[in-house]
Amino acid sequence: MTDTLDAQLLSVPQERKIVTAIPGPKSEELQRRRLAVVPPGVSSALPVYIQKAHGAIIVDVDGNQFIDLGAGIGVTTIGHTDAAVVAAAAEQLGDVTHTLFTITPYEEYVRVAELLAEHTPGDFAKRTVLVNSGAEAVENAVKIARKHTRRAGVAVLEHAYHGRTNLTMAMNFKAAPYATGFGPFAGDVYRAPNSYPYHDGLSGAEAAARTIAYLEKTVGASDLACLVVEPIQGEGGFVVPAEGYLPALHEWCTAEGIVFIADEIQSGMARTGAWFASEHFGLVPDVVLSAKGIAGGLPLAGVTGRAEIMDSAQPGGLGGTFGGNPVAAAAAIAVFEQLETGEGFESAQRIERVLVEGLQKLADRYDIVGEIRGIGAMVAIELVQPGTAATTKAPNAEAVSAVVAYAAQHGVLLLNAGTYGNVLRFLPSLAISDELLHDALAVIEEAFAQLGA
Ligand code: PMP
Q1: Which of the four pLDDT bands, split at 50, 70 and 90, describes residue 11?
Q2: What residues flank ligand 1, with Cβ below 6 Å?
Q3: What is the spatial order of strands in the sheet that 301-306 belongs to?
Q4: In Å, how far are 5, 68, 154, 272 from 52, measured between CA atoms?
Q5: So which residues are the signal peptide here (predicted)?
Q6: Among 292, 303, 378, 425, which is best to mutate for testing ligand 1, by the most ligand atoms less than 8 A from CB?
Q7: What average pLDDT does the chain have?
Q8: What are the pLDDT digits (tens) for 429-447?
Q9: Torsion angles phi and psi, residue 446, rounded to 5
């Protein structure tokens, strides 16, 4: 690592600091420039322009330092500008930045595939295709499952989110803002009820029976190529299914020749204190999708599946210009190597303990906190209207927006989630200290106090 890089990393103290209005004047100026050249369809949750970042802190152009509880939606899982990732990517940049794996291959791609084979659930021969984004991983998984099964149907669950490409728009639960006006959409996508214990009160077995009965009736198992499931739903609001739900669905898929695809794009790569969230549920999917946290911030995604399924695609049928780019692959190898030390997993468990304890205090004081849920560094609270926690659990998106806005003004970047926008989600990097978590929780407590709830 160069001296300059070292100095750059050290120049981001791990503390919250607000020195201007939010957004500050330089961000406002950049926002004006942006509005002239970037369409509003690409929106930003908080229009402060980030200049540098390290660990769990992002610094904007006006010198404000935010505690980042979103990590770019679960991407910088091992921390912003992680030294090993930066060093690996920098070295790779100097060696080779691109050849196109489908023209002349390179070792880094193969190594990432080996690491994914080793660390995804299941002790069987696996193959991996690397692509650029989560949505592209979903598209490829569906494509491969269709080729393998010679069937067309794609089953998804309520509250799912899978991306913004044409097929994935059709797979998402929420139309607005992801799909509104962007049709026609891909056909043969069937949406079944999920397991959402806080709302449906069903056991895993009951919820699975409901999902299966729905799909049997509305499509028929023999027409389904795959079932695509987020083991813990991300954009849907960190919905953790009831125990036994996922294995029961998988059993049904296996019996019916349906490929079970786990979309672990948000929940994978140590986010939940396991390599993949499937492990918490005793689930061994046929295909696992990874993206976000895999390369420490560089664009990379993987489709890893049983060899016999993955091998169904004909030579030339998979790939793309940038898929498995050497720099992104080198960064991913550095991420895997660090996670292999086991520290990241312990950190995820520590983060869960601190967050849940802090959020429980809020729940004890405010009846709008309907449920605290999640695993590892993937924790959320669902907010409901006052007085409805024991009855209708009516969504309280206004409170979520107010808390997010207050937190931003006070140097905490917090994300919302949920079909009804009434979930606060916490997905900090594993590098965050207890001190920063406590500091962020204190700001969130102030935000709740301001609600007058
Ligand atoms: N699946 C899940 C579970 C996701 O959380 C996301 C991104 N939020 C995607 C797919 C799409 O990934 P990308 O934005 O990289 O296309």
Answers
A1: confident
A2: 73, 133-135, 138, 161-163, 230, 234-235, 263, 265-266, 291
A3: 126-131, 301-306, 287-290, 259-263, 224-229, 153-157, 189-192
A4: 12, 12, 41, 26
A5: none
A6: 292
A7: 97
A8: 999 999 999 999 999 999 9
A9: -60, -40
Q: Please tell me the distance from the alpha carbon of residue 116 to that of residue 137, in angstroms, as a whole number.
A: 14
Q: Is pLDDT of 8 > 90?
A: no
pTM of the model: 0.97
Task: Give me the domains of the chain, ranges plus CATH numbers.
Answer: 2-81+343-451 (3.90.1150.10), 85-339 (3.40.640.10)
Choice among 6-20, 187-201, 295-309, 368-382 with the minimum mean pLDDT: 6-20
Q: Which atom of ligand 1 is nearest to the CA of 160?
A: 3
Nearest residue to 286 (alpha-carbon basis) of 268, 272, 303, 273: 303
CA of 266 to the centre of ligand 1 (A): 7
φ and ψ at residue 366, rounded to 5 degrees: -120, 120
Ligand 1 center to residue 230 CA distance, Å?
10
Mean pLDDT confidence for 48-73: 98
Q: Which of 221, 151, 150, 222 is nearest to 192 (CA)?
A: 221
Nearest CA to ligand 1 atom 12: 134
